[in-house]
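Progress note, project year one: complex with zinc ion.
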Amino acid sequence: MIMGFESLNDVFQIKANRANGSAVLALYRCFKKFWLILDGNICMIPRDPPRRPQLGFLYLPPFRVQGISIAGEESVVQLPELDTCFDIGRCPRAALSSPYVALTHGHMDHSAGLAYYFSQRYFQGMGVGTVLCHPKLEQPIHNLMRAWIDIEAQKTPYNVKAMEPDEQIEIKKTLFLRAFETNHRVPSLGYTIVEKRSKLRPDLTGMPQEKLIALKKKGEPITQTHDIPLVCYTGDTAWGSHFDRPDVLEAQILITECTFLEEDHRKRANVGMHLHLDDIIKLLERSTAKAIVLTHLSRRTHLAQAKKQIFEAIKPEDRQRLFLLMDHRNNRERYAQQQEQLGEVRD
Ligand SMILES: [Zn+2]
Ligand SMILES: [Zn+2]
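Model obtained:
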């Protein structure tokens, strides 16, 4: 039985009846550390503060997908090899290394780290960061950075590039980031990173080298460019015609949201203009991606429960290609296996 409670500087003292073992046990479960003092008083130090959320990490060769994504709190998904960070809800240190932030929409949980991203990149001598955004967000971003000049009494350099739907920009040699319209409560875009690979024109297959060179010298194009959609990130969105696009459905890695799972949350998904597990099932039937990464799960459902619900709802053959970005334990185990396999190859 707990007899009293008083605070002693940083240390809380709780007096408990020494004979009552279950009370002591209950207290032990509440607080990680305590000292039992001889006269029967239990002295305990309070818990340390919660740590910052850990970065989710998946190695989907040849790309790393890393970041944090929790509905309503924070979404930032980085592909280091592709120089791009999709959304920047807050700005973890790792995100700074990406010269581009492709912003899907302005909701705070996706955009609040933007000013900090620009500032830290500049401060650390990493070059001026560029944000790609919906045309309707261009001016508000200028306003945001303008406000920071007044707050900080200094000017942070930054670049904003408004992306019209279907516009694409080159982010790396032969790699283009293309925007497409999505369906959310505010102006929103999704993005696909496309590799432009040139291949010999099919009608010239088998032609001797000298003849090809001669054609080229005459100024005739001997190659054709093919678009290979590498990674697609939809951001927050309801179901819509963008899920018919080849560069979404054929992306090798498709990163999308799944905010609602429960049957009775269908209506909430519609109101919030988010995807529901039913949509993911539809999407799995259409997408040819070798990996589909779910983000933006709600904290309302415990991760283990969410995982069970998702994996029971999908076809067994899809279980190998569906990942949850924030499923730290599984993703860590998978990465350890990948390292082991690579070690075996090296040996
Ligand atoms: Zn969101
Ligand atoms: Zn949103």
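Confidence is low (pLDDT under 50) at residues 1-19.
The chain has ten helices and 18 strands.
No further modelling is planned for this target in the current period.
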